[in-house]
Amino acid sequence: MATMDSLIGLVNKIQRACTVLGDHGGEGLSLWEALPSVAVVGGQSSGKSSVLESIVGRDFLPRGSGIVTRRPLVLQLHKTDGGAEYAEFLHAPRKRFTDFAAVRKEIADETDRITGKTKQISNIPIHLSIYSPHVVNLTLIDLPGLTKVAVEGQPESIVQDIENMVRSYVEKPNCIILAISPANQDIATSDAIKLAREVDPTGERTFGVLTKLDLMDQGTNALDVLEGRAYRLQHPWVGVVNRSQAEINKNVDMIAARRKEREYFEHSPEYSHLSHKMGSEYLAKLLSKTIDEINAELDRIGRPIAADGGAQLYTILEMCRAFDKVFKEHLDGGRPGGDRIYGVFDHQLPAAMKKLPLDRHLSTSNVRKVVAEADGYQPHLIAPEQGIRRLIDGSLGYFKGPAEATVDAVHLILKELVRKSIAATVELKRFPSLQNDIATAANDALERFRDESRRTVLRLVEMESSYLTVEFFRKIQMEPEKNEKNPNNKEVPNADRYTDIHLRRIGSNVSAYVGMVADTLKNTIPKAAVHCQVREAKRALLNQFYINIGKKEKEQLSGMLDEDPALMARREQLAKRLALYKSARDDIDSVAWGK
Predict the structure, then answer these.
(1) Are 226 and 237 in contact, with CB atoms under 8 Å apart?
(2) How far is Cα 63 from Cα 237, in angstroms, rounded to an integer?
(3) 366: buried, middle or exposed (CB in 10 Å: 19+, 13-18, 0-12)?
(4) Which residue intervals define the domain GED in the entry (predicted)?
(5) Residue 56 contacts residue 75 (beta carbons within 8 Å)
(6) What are the 10-residue block averages of pLDDT along the chain, 595 residues in total?
């Protein structure tokens, strides 16, 4: 429940929000029919006119017993920067009304012009515009009161005629329904609630307003309704206290009436215990909570996307940027995964090199075999250079395996990080086709980076084989060998240079050189993998994808952004509700703080 101030703020801002979100009409509709509006619906003598006047802040509607509103009144409020208030009618466009008593009379006269001085009704609306610095831009529709029986002077069809007329307004999806029900009548018989439930079964457009709380029988109250026990609506019930007929006759102004209404709720023995969750501030908090919940769901399912090709391309690029951000966080340490690449360099590569069969390749028997084959029919004279080169070349050839394995290991990690990044990019969850397109493009790029990295690391190994470090071998002199058979360190004849000692020395020298190269490759292979794979993945993972989507037509872009239709409908519904609640909250705040 809330005061009239709350109701005014709520209705004004709800309608303003719907101006953007509502159905903008179609062929054959007048401007006011195309714009969103707030329809005031209720039974005869339910207090509709008082509620409407409280929203406007002016006395301008005809009053009386029975059916007073016999034509729809489309009331458009226009906020001005200042100056005097005035009104204009569409049927008298060059005439300004500054006396609102004259406005009341003009409404009555214009009604009679179409219906006569009878109790007939007409669906031809009266268009009234009020210009004032004290209102907000808002379209209100006052409709004939719903009734259950025809009275003297009315056709038997009047009951159905009124309902059909009201229904034609409130069934529009851009119409907010203000369902007015008097508190001194059974809510179960409320015509307004019954009709609202039929045209708005979800209750998202319906706000229940309970009037005449101060006119209830002694000892009774409306707590069951206001607390949602008697009839629950999606939005909280709003309780209002209108001016009495005596106050109307005394011309009690609306500001004083609103102040009196607030005092009524604050001091009422029936309703004061609810004050902590009534009024403007409570409604604002309630709407804020609803906004947070809707925002959370919208974040989960994604925000709406415009239909034009430029907006779709922008959306795809934003999705790619979001994915790229997550991917880089995996590599740079914000998320797990990048450390595994370092593990390849620090553990896997050295371990693979350590497992190479170099001991077997440089065994005494294999050294003898390789050296002998290199010497051919004429043994070497001083040092078996050709044999040593062959031993080194054969040893370095083993490094190609660990080099390629390092590249492949980095490639697999990058592919896994692409998969994880797509899964972790919340914005992409709603677009399965775009997920697949990005994954395919990213993996294609990683394949290209892997191929270039593989060529690079193999070149590194081949360069080591192509040119040996001269300084290292200049230190390798075939010094006289010491052994048990040569205690005096005498020169060993050339024929004895194939002794095991000599061969072991050759193997040892080659092993030392290969070890030096291995240490170099342990540093250069990771550098090559990072440069060709990791760096390029961070810099240009989706570059080719960007080029390709720039060439796509709107229909192809739409296909990349395909979604579940039910999800799209839910998002549209949430977006409308979010804008509506935000606007309502803002206006309630302005009312609560007197802005």
Answers:
(1) yes
(2) 26
(3) middle
(4) 503-595
(5) yes
(6) 49 44 37 55 77 74 75 85 89 89 90 82 88 76 80 76 86 77 84 88 81 83 86 81 72 72 82 62 49 68 69 86 93 87 93 87 79 66 72 88 95 95 88 91 96 95 84 58 48 54 80 88 95 95 90 80 76 73 57 40
